Amino acid sequence: MGDTVLSQFTQAFDEEKKISGRKLKVGIIGCGWIAEAHAESYKEMDDVEIVAAADLIPGKAEAFCARYGFEGVHFYPSHKEMLDSEKLDAVSVCTYNAQHAAPTIYALDHGVNVLLEKPFTVTLDEAVEVCRAEKRSGKLLSIGFQPRCDVNMQMIKKIVESGALGKVYYIQTGGGRRRGIPNSTFIEKGTAGIGALGDIGCYSLDMVLNAVGYPKPLTVSGYKSAYFGTNPEYATPDRFHTAEENAARFGVDDFAAGFIRLENDIILDFRISWAMHMDTPGDTIILGTKAGLRIPSTDCWNGSVGGEMTLYHDLAGVRMEEKIPILKDKSGHGLFYKKIRGFLDAIIDGTPAPVPSSQILYNQAIIDGICKSAELGHEIEIRIPEI
């Protein structure tokens, strides 16, 4: 299953739809690690045919498809050559972060639906250009935030939307790993662009922003550092580099934090870490005028709920604490599969994207704002251009 490539999550979807009569023709752009999860998920779907794959490294796409048993695939050295030559229903864009925008825009402009891996892009400007391409194309663009499919994540949103918390006015969120710096293209500025902020920070932001209806971010005071990734004592070797070499090429953030003012008079206190001398930067807390919700953190945060949640509220003048147990799914499919299935079903049914760019644009604006504020050393206004 595709989810074996990633951390395991609980998930909840009720049914799986199938196309009748014709298979969706799908291409994969970028055949690295994250594409493995896409390939394993697509293999489980009998209404999908992988017909094309593109990668800049000679032979990589061929080896990738051979490993997963995809036959009759056409191979290309670039997304442009693939999209110029093939008639596709959809593509998975699985390139490194700094190359998310270009193939997505090119695919949309060629009338192809896109499932774009997270983070959305590296900068807000890139995200805006992608959204504009989506608008002029009329095609579907969904962003790869599989934690949205977790029934426990969905419960957070249900609690907020029920009104049980009253007016939400303060959110503390984030996640961390005591030691969890990835290698490969994740740590170089030229390929990743952003570090922990984009890798796991986007998930943490989405968990709470989605729950409260994605209010527009207004201002941000940001901070970021790289004390661990640049230190050979904490850097880790891989099959291509020593720890010293990885420390030398580390060019992104391994810790970041932000204090964000949102529309509707909501304050967001955020922090994210790939490495630190602590097991967690804290649980997620959503404070409302009627109740507060505590969402436990995990040891190695990757977009999941760490345990049963607690709702704090008063009842007839008595302070109450209500435990919300972890829910389990029995569908037999993991979150990554559900993410891809939801994207394909939206194409088939003509329904909106499961994770729309209009929401993740705000997510990216916060990440971009944290970076800019950190570089300037003061709070900045977040300005999002018209799409």
Provide a descriptive summary of the structure in words:
This protein is an alpha/beta fold. It has 2 domains: 2-147 and 334-355, NAD(P)-binding Rossmann-like Domain (Rossmann fold), CATH 3.40.50; 150-328 and 365-375, 2-Layer Sandwich (Dihydrodipicolinate Reductase, domain 2). 32% of the residues lie in helices and 23% in strands. The protein is built from 11 helices and 15 strands. The chain has helices at residues 33-43, 60-68, 79-85, 101-109, 124-137, 151-161, 189-192, 196-211, 243-249, 335-349, 357-376, and strands at residues 24-29, 48-54, 74-76, 90-93, 113-117, 141-144, 168-176, 217-225, 255-262, 266-273, 284-288, 291-295, 309-315, 318-324, 380-381. The strands form 2 sheets. The protein has a 9-stranded mixed sheet, with helices on one face. Strands 3-2-1-4-5-6 form a 6-stranded parallel sheet, with helices on both faces. Strand 9 (255-262) and strand 10 form a beta hairpin. Helix 5 runs antiparallel to helix 11 (357-376), helix 6 crosses helix 8 (196-211) and helix 8 packs across helix 11 (357-376). The longest helix has 20 residues, at 357-376. 50% of the residues are buried. Residues 4-20 have low confidence and may be disordered.
